[in-house]
Amino acid sequence: MTGPHPAVAALRSAVAAGCDDLPGGALVLVACSGGPDSLALAAAAGWLAGASRPPGRRARWRAGAVVVDHGLQAGSAEVARRAAACCRELGLDPVEVVTAGPAALAAPGGPGPEAAARDARYAALGGTAQRLGAAAVLLGHTLDDQAEQVLLGLARGSGARSLAGMPARRGPWRRPLLGTGRDVVREACAALGLTPWEDPTNADPSFTRSRVRTRLLPALEAELGPGVAGALARTADQLREDADALEALAAELLAAARLPGGAPGEDDDGGGDGVVVLDAVRLQAAPAAVRRRALRAAALAAGCPAGDLARSHVLAVDALLTAWRGQGPLHLPGRVEASRSVDGGCGRLSVVFNRVTRERATPGGR
User: Fold this and answer.
1) Fewer Cβ close by (within 10 Å): the C or N end of the chain?
2) Domain encompassing residue 155
3) pLDDT tens-digit map of 238-271
């Protein structure tokens, strides 16, 4: 008796490892678009959950699926219907189609269409998972997607956290195929007789990620040799370890440097914690990589929106410690000000993050 095709076996092993901690009877939802990655993921999850297993073999968890229809392409409802039908044929249950249409993506001044669609998709998936009581949501991102993420981060001049790419697990989200190449996924679909939907936007050069996928990565492979995608994914894994360690040290530094003068909930009008006061002397003694992460965390705690807080803002705050020339308060995103002050009682320097409200135009109400 022959076993499954090697690509099919590889996918099943990857999904089994990605869900190895889930209790028996737990519901796992596959985010399925009908494309090759998510369809192959659904097939592996359905088999592991017992839909195609020989009798007498007990499944550890149940598998369902969620198909999100953005309604942004002609015929998207039919694509979603077919994806849902395929998931049911693969034995997944429950299977739901959720609409996150154009109205949810049309916020004026908001992110671009790709980011808006992603945010709407995650919101729809998360809401469905919560409603159904799912223990995890499986996403079909592959090793190639991880490589593309790293290249996009490099092009933006991002730091280690962004270059670390997508984590295999974070909260309910799981990406069991991050170590599996897109070619293996397509082989598995062919071996299983699955006909995936090909998203036309994946080849649309107007989208940056599409150009990275269809032009940049193939060019790198052609010029540098095969294995570029795998090397970029390994780089992401190493940087994630470094970023985790540095952020843990930054959290310890922030806790040790925090002084009385502000507490969570004070002067908060709904967008942050209000006032954060830090011991500048303690901060100055820390390595720059740790200190700047602590300063960023302090700014976020005071109410700065994470998406608007740039490295240039953090470096300007850091200059209050390392290049003090009497400069005045810094205006940060989210109506937050950062300033350097002297405590007359003990003579200690401090950096104050103060969220400015309508009633208080300057830090401390002065």
Assistant:
1) N
2) 6-241
3) 999 999 999 999 999 999 999 876 544 443 333 3
Q: Within 10 A of 52 (CB to CB), how many other CB atoms are there?
A: 12
Q: Confirm whether 253 is domain-assigned.
A: no
Residue 85 lies in a domain: yes
Same domain, 231 and 279: no
pTM (predicted TM-score): 0.83
pLDDT in tens, 88-110: 999 999 999 999 865 545 555 55
Per the domain annotation, does 255 fall within a domain?
no
Query: Do 15 and 125 belong to one domain?
Result: yes
